[in-house]
Amino acid sequence: MRNRLISRLLWLLLVMITASTVLTGCGQRGPLYLPEDAEERDHNAR
Fold first, then answer.
1. Is 37 helix (H, G, I), strand (E, B) or coil?
2. Which residue in 26, 38, 40, 45 has a CA-CA distance of 20 to 30 Å to 9?
């Protein structure tokens, strides 16, 4: 009985972690890049 409860809780935890990981990626668009430094941005604007 106790093993079944632990197994069920672990399964639920796994499902919740997977769902939160998938949902975190939703709505993220565009290329992944590192933002430019402020100095480079100011230099390019001139």
1. coil
2. 26
Token readout for 8 is 């069920």
Contacts of residue 44, defined as CB under 8 A and 6 or more positions apart, other chains included, come to 36
Find tokens 């069920």 and name the residue. 8
The conformation of residue 26, written as its DSSP 8-state character, comes to T
Question: Which single residue is written with the structure tokens 């230099």?
Answer: 43
Residue 30 phi/psi, 5° resolution?
Answer: 85, 170
pLDDT digits (tens, 9 = 90+) for 1-46: 789 999 999 999 999 999 998 888 776 676 667 777 765 555 566 5
